[in-house]
Design goal:
With 165 residues, the chain is of the alpha/beta class. The protein has helices spanning 25-35, 44-49, 80-85, 99-105; strands spanning 2-8, 13-16, 19-20, 39-43, 59-63, 74-77, 93-95, 111-117, 126-127, 136-144, 154-161. The chain is globular, with a radius of gyration of 15 Å.
Length: 165
């Protein structure tokens, strides 16, 4: 099963200058809880944006066209198809970014874990594809108000692909 996990602003912005747009401790906790013990797949730029390299207690897969790229604690593949071929069909694999990997994977995914932030950033250069309500069903939405640790309110929105497509 392929799942996508992402935090998006109102305008579907996900990043600027290869960095996340928002620091949301509760979203980071959710990300860790959902992905720990699973395979995560990311593009090279997303991997390079991680402050400590490969994420612990997960199988880290990096996608890059550079045949010489290596990273400690991670496996490297040239394409999403090659990476997915090395995953077990029954395991939940998480796509964690960036923009081009999300665009390629959204048609393959069966579940979306989307944190929607109640803000539109002044600057963004990476965006998540539109979620087509004809293809995706919202099955859960959990609101979180802004507070001392979270400058903006947000929702955890979980979607499943309609009709088992």
């Amino acid at each position: 099963m392929i799942s996508i996990i992402v935090a998006v602003a109102r305008n579907n912005a996900i990043g600027y200058g290869n960095q996340l747009l928002y620091w949301l401790p509760d979203d980071l906790k959710r990300f860790k809880a959902l992905t720990t013990g699973h395979t995560i797949i990311m593009g090279r730029k997303t991997f390079e944006s991680l402050p400590k390299g490969a994420l612990p207690n997960r199988r880290n897969i990096i996608l890059t066209r550079n045949p010489d790229f290596r990273a400690a604690g991670a496996e490297v593949f040239r394409s999403l198809a090659d990476a997915l071929a090395q995953c077990q069909p029954e395991e939940e694999v998480f796509i964690i970014g960036g923009e081009s990997v999300y665009k390629e994977a959204i048609g393959l995914a069966s579940r979306l874990y989307v944190t929607t932030i109640e803000d539109t950033p002044a600057q963004a250069d990476a965006f998540f594809p539109e979620i087509d309500s004809a293809k995706w069903e919202l099955i859960q939405s959990i609101p979180h108000e802004a507070d001392a640790k979270h400058e903006h309110g947000f929702q955890f929105n979980d979607y499943i692909k309609k009709g088992g497509e």
